[in-house]
């Protein structure tokens, strides 16, 4: 039996946060570890929750005392393995660009359907990122790519053929186990190639690898 996905919810709007928590509790494979009203409360809760940390933090952008971008930056320094999905009413390119640069793993709008929320959480947990159609269109436009903090063509040309194969499968949302099975290699080998990709591309996480792949045309823009 697969273990429950551990989640923390951070949003200053109490009614929205409580509704979100109740909806997540209705998903059979997830549990909410704690709630926070801003970034400071989140970081305090992370420091006080013991060894068992959330797998995913659902984060609002606009919050008092410490907003979502500041909280994400601090969270990624202190707890780099925790994945962040931004929940926001903001869909402009400048906000998406900033989120990618801070190392967020996914983004969905606050008015999204519950099915997309569930899919975003599960996909981010298993694959390391979730980019919906809006974010992908922004990537395809090239505007985000010009600003994204990932390396350019020289780094792309230095990738081995195997690394490019693995990067393509990552962008197609294959899990580590699925990549290993597809290429007939071990899980450890997949992890090793992924780590090499992060070093070579300068990406902060798997989401950054996807941006790199678009920027260097390693994957088809219609993928």
TrEMBL record:
Coiled coil: none annotated. SUPFAM superfamilies: C-terminal effector domain of the bipartite response regulators, CheY-like. One of its GO terms (biological process) is regulation of DNA-templated transcription. Keywords: DNA-binding, Phosphoprotein. One of its GO terms (molecular function) is DNA binding. InterPro entries: CheY-like_superfamily, NreC/VraR/RcsB-like_REC, Sig_transdc_resp-reg_C-effctor, Sig_transdc_resp-reg_receiver, Tscrpt_reg_LuxR_C, WalR-like. CDD domains: LuxR_C_like (cd06170), REC_NarL-like (cd17535). The modification 4-aspartylphosphate is found at residue 60. Residues 152-217 form the HTH luxR-type domain. Transmembrane segments: none annotated. The keyword DNA-binding applies. This is DNA-binding response regulator. It comes from Pedobacter steynii.
């Amino acid at each position: 039996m697969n273990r429950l996905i551990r989640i923390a919810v951070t949003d200053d709007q109490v009614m929205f946060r409580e509704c979100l928590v109740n909806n997540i509790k209705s998903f059979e494979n997830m549990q909410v570890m704690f709630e926070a009203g801003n970034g400071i409360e989140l970081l305090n809760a992370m420091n006080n929750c013991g060894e068992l940390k959330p797998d995913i933090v659902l984060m609002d952008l606009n919050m008092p005392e410490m907003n979502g971008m500041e909280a994400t930056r601090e969270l990624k320094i202190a707890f780099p393995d925790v994945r962040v999905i931004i929940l926001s009413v903001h869909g402009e390119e400048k906000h998406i660009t900033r989120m990618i640069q801070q190392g967020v793993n996914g983004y969905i709008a606050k008015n999204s359907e519950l099915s997309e929320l569930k899919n975003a959480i599960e996909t981010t947990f298993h694959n390391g990122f979730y980019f919906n159609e809006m974010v992908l269109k922004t990537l395809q436009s090239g505007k985000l790519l010009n600003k994204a903090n990932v390396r350019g063509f020289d780094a792309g040309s230095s990738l081995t053929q195997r690394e490019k194969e693995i990067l393509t499968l990552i962008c197609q949302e294959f899990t580590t186990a699925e990549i290993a099975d597809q290429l007939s290699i071990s899980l450890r080998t997949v992890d090793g190639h992924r780590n090499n990709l992060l070093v070579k591309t300068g990406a902060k996480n798997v989401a950054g690898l996807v941006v790199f792949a678009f920027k260097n045309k390693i994957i088809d823009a219609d993928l």
